[in-house]
Amino acid sequence: MTILEIDNVSYRYKNTRENILEDVNQTFESGQFYAIIGASGAGKSTLLSLLAGLDEPQEGHILFEQEDIKQKGYSYHRRHHISLVFQNYNLIDYLTPLENVRLVDKKASSSILIELGLNPNQIKRNVMKLSGGQQQRVAIARALASKAPVILADEPTGNLDENTADEIITILKKMAKERNKCVIVVTHSKQLAQSADVVLELKDKKLQIV
Ligand code: ADP
Ligand code: ADP
């Protein structure tokens, strides 16, 4: 089922003349794991911001379940449809993993963190005492706790070694396959792109299936 759609989108930053994205079209399905690749500066992060409702295209539409995200409003879209995962995890550093997850779901239990591979001892610690890979697991647990059907991730393995990156990629893929999430990841990593169901390359202002 198509859950998210980019419909003829063109975009340029304010105070700049040239479009960064031009007539971009793409549909995204639930249960699928997408990688968006492309050279540095190609516009990958910009595209992710548009999908997240953090910015607005000058032309075209972003649709969630066939409806322009403008209709219910961008903040509604950000709160209910999507969750974001970042390269630097964006956790609240003076809280524990469970406290971080409870910021999005007050009733969340530690089982969600255990399922993602943290042990009970780690769950009670301050998140800053965890390794990068463990912190990224907490960030993904928080994304899951939000119950959003779409997970948008910007370089989620960018700060991790190859083995840890592999574990995080496996988890993201599992989210798509076992929980029917639509997972869209912007990445430089060939390792990650190889695991994706669909690889999209942003090049010359267009998005193309590789
Ligand atoms: P990528 O994620 O593929 O590296 P970005 O989406 O970050 O690319 O950036 C695409 C282009 O837009 C780059 O040329 C970048 O310098 C430019 N850009 C990004 N953010 C802004 C901004 N706020 N104002 C003006 N130009 C920007
Ligand atoms: P990434 O590593 O994801 O490609 P960048 O390092 O290019 O991101 O950009 C980091 C932040 O700076 C982003 O929020 C982006 O929008 C902003 N940015 C990038 N290029 C420019 C620019 N030329 N002018 C203003 N802001 C920019």
TrEMBL record:
* GO MF annotation, one: ATP binding
**InterPro entries xrefs:** AAA+_ATPase (IPR003593), ABC_transporter-like_ATP-bd (IPR003439), ABC_transporter-like_CS (IPR017871), ABC_transpr_LolD-like (IPR015854), MacB-like_ATP-bd (IPR017911), P-loop_NTPase (IPR027417)
Q: Which Pfam families match?
A: ABC_tran (PF00005)
Domain of life the protein comes from: Bacteria
Protein's recorded name: ABC transporter ATP-binding protein
What PANTHER family has UniProt attached to this entry? Answer: IMPORT ATP-BINDING PROTEIN (PTHR24220), LIPOPROTEIN-RELEASING SYSTEM ATP-BINDING PROTEIN LOLD (PTHR24220:SF689)
Q: What PROSITE patterns does its record include?
A: ABC_TRANSPORTER_1, ABC_TRANSPORTER_2
Q: Which Gene3D superfamilies match?
A: P-loop containing nucleotide triphosphate hydrolases
* ABC transporter domain: residues covered: 4-209
Q: Keywords assigned by UniProt?
A: ATP-binding, Nucleotide-binding, Transport
